[in-house]
Amino acid sequence: MAADDQPVPVFPKPVTLRDVAAAAGVSVATASKALNSQGRMTAETRERIRETARSLGFRPNSLAQSLLRRRSFTVGLLTNDTYGRFSLPLMSGISDALVDNGVSVFLCNVEEDPRLGQLHVEAMLDKRVDGIIATGKRIDRHLPVDLSDLRVPVIYAFTQPDPDAVAFVSDDAGGARLAVEHFCGLGRKRIAHVTGPASFAVVHDRAQAYRDVLTENGLPAAEPLLGAWSEAWGHEAVARLFDGPRRQDGKGERPDAVFCGNDQIARGVIDALRERGLSVPGDVGVIGFDNWEIVAEATRPPLTSVDMNLAALGREAGLTLLSLVGGQPAAPGIRKLPCRLVVRQSCGHPMDG
Amino acid sequence: MAADDQPVPVFPKPVTLRDVAAAAGVSVATASKALNSQGRMTAETRERIRETARSLGFRPNSLAQSLLRRRSFTVGLLTNDTYGRFSLPLMSGISDALVDNGVSVFLCNVEEDPRLGQLHVEAMLDKRVDGIIATGKRIDRHLPVDLSDLRVPVIYAFTQPDPDAVAFVSDDAGGARLAVEHFCGLGRKRIAHVTGPASFAVVHDRAQAYRDVLTENGLPAAEPLLGAWSEAWGHEAVARLFDGPRRQDGKGERPDAVFCGNDQIARGVIDALRERGLSVPGDVGVIGFDNWEIVAEATRPPLTSVDMNLAALGREAGLTLLSLVGGQPAAPGIRKLPCRLVVRQSCGHPMDG
DNA sequence: CTGAAAGCGCTTACAG
DNA sequence: CTGAAAGCGCTTACAG
User: Fold this and answer.
1) Which residues make up the interface with nucleic strand D when CB must lie under 7 A?
2) B72-171+310-338: which CATH architecture?
């Protein structure tokens, strides 16, 4: 009993099918069939084998099974945004979809490093993943990896896809519509748009939707104010919008609503408005984007915000990958999934103007 | 050439060692040895085999290798905090450590669901992970899974460990010392502590360190103010500390420093102070905890904060797991890793008081 | 210096 | 109704 004297924990060898077969007094083949509900044998034999498997704590070695089946029930998840709040709900949705179907997920953070990306992709392929999902932190940037012509299906979610790939992204223009139409429905007339830098594609998509909705409603569209994705920019934008001299042509009136490109900008806008003695939502309604709960719920008042439904998007991506792995074809192209507006208290009730 | 007519992309079969051997005109065994620098053969043969492997794009099937080696170069990462900002740097550190050593990571979110946890652990074990790392969002709560008596080594990081396990956590008391000593060094005399709810172990650890440091410095320690981990609580705490009637015994003086239990509380404190016309750091110095950059950098002024070095902690955990997997024993117990103070502008320079 | 054999743990035709 | 054989893709003693 030397093993019992060891100071280090000793890890027991896993029990194999051979062990089960021996204990049950049958061949390995029969044992396998009994456990997999394959082949024909008396119900008693089958049950006896199962019982001994259970009592021995037998769990089949997935490695061996995968080798045979050419299917590892494993998927690779590539991201360049381990820290970000976008990839998190996304990845959570992806995992959910996959886990529910018994597949495990290799998480790989490739950052912005092509070599790291290459390394991870090769490792995943070597481990015979059934497929790969590429995610990112913005939909207009490519991951630093080449995922074309892989031996396995690939899906893109919230990142710039290869041509002819299947991809899922949020419908940012639709999300912007939701926000601006909400303001219109409430009777707001002078709706400003304060958003991020021009280098982001979504900035233009949303700005266009903003203009479209205002036009459709016969309202004047001011030029969107582009800046950083920060609270500080929210402050500065308010200074520009509210501190300038009043114009005389009637168009220079102060906004009664601000649609912000993200929740941090909105936070800055709300704080700056309060510092000027302007009431939200009384004087000015504010809507954010991203629905970053920890921010949206801490603003005073709590912030109405556009939610990109990232978890649902991830779930859809996961499910589609699975069907691809299963041999079902999927039409290539970019599918845009709808956003939703989460209404809190920063827009108030319909106005009687 | 029917395959070329298919509408669905056709995934080429991976090339096997057998293919390489055939192409090079040697046996599979020889091919294997050539590629693994094993056995003896002429340098030319070896190079020729390697060259044909390269030209065929051969990559060994890890599944087969793992089956043989009883080592999958794969590790399971358990968490109940996919959304949180604590597990992210942690996981990033863990991944880094592992990836650098060629091991891939299965990410499993078990949430608070014991059944989900059980499921994930079994799936990982079936896939023959070499080891498991359990992480969480607070160090005084157990994951909803039983990780004792597994067939593989287990490491705990930033979560409540099983007895006799090896675990890594942040040294919260040490972090609190850093903060309070920083205030003392700056000459602050009346240092308050506004923190989270009593249900968190770290609240008491840090509060005790706070008292200890003040005592060591001959300064009065006020009772720590316990509340929620929120901005709103920061506001309320400032109201309690600064709006009450002045006491006459000299002990009722307003604080000149506030050490906060997290960055959100600190944000609330700073905002509330500004609203009262009090200057930070002029009148009151403020230190936060967590060093959540997106918050710490957005406060006005930017917030000095205690960083738990979570990425480093994760890295340490990953490395230790690897050495455990490699057969090196590791002493069981909880290892506390030091925090560091990230100085920004919310404490100012030494006072001349 | 190179190859045939056995085996990792399992499954699946194929015999009996 | 059950078992022997072949094989998934690889590696490692062991012969020659």
Assistant:
1) A 25-30, 39-42, 45, 64, 67-68, 70; B 13-14, 16-18, 28-29, 32-33, 35-36, 38-39, 58-61, 64-65, 67-69
2) 3-Layer(aba) Sandwich (3.40)
Domain B2-60 matches domain B172-307 at the CATH topology level: no
Residue contact A126–B62, C-beta within 8 A: yes
Show pLDDT as tens, one digit a residue, over chain A (353 residues): 334 443 456 788 899 999 999 999 999 999 999 999 888 888 888 999 999 999 999 999 999 999 999 999 999 999 998 777 888 889 889 999 998 898 999 999 998 999 999 999 999 999 999 999 999 988 999 999 999 989 999 999 999 999 999 999 999 999 999 999 999 999 999 999 999 999 999 999 999 999 999 999 999 888 999 999 999 999 999 999 998 776 555 556 899 999 999 999 999 999 999 999 999 999 999 999 999 999 999 999 999 999 999 999 999 999 999 999 999 999 999 999 999 999 999 998 887 54
CA of B209 to C1' of D8 (A): 60
Look at A123 and B108 and tell me if their CB atoms are within 8 Å.
Answer: no
| CATH number belonging to the domain at B172-307, selected among 1.20.140.20, 3.40.1280.10, 3.50.50.60, 3.40.50.2300 | 3.40.50.2300
| Close Cβ partners of B73 (under 8 Å, ≥ 6 residues apart) | B62, B66, B102, B103, B104, B130
Q: How far is the CA of A40 from the C1' of D1 (A)?
A: 7
CB A298 within 8 A of CB B299: no
pTM of the model: 0.92
Name the CATH code of domain B2-60 (choices 3.30.70.2740, 1.10.260.40, 3.40.50.1820, 3.30.70.330). 1.10.260.40
Q: How far apart are CA B197 and CA B228, in angstroms?
A: 6
Residue type, B114: P
Question: Residue length, chain A?
Answer: 353
B271 contact residues in A (CB cutoff 8 A): 271
Q: Which DSSP helix (H) or strand (E) runs through B109?
A: strand B104-109
Say yes or no for a CB contact (<8 Å) between A60 and B126: yes
- Residue A331 tokens, joined: 């039409």
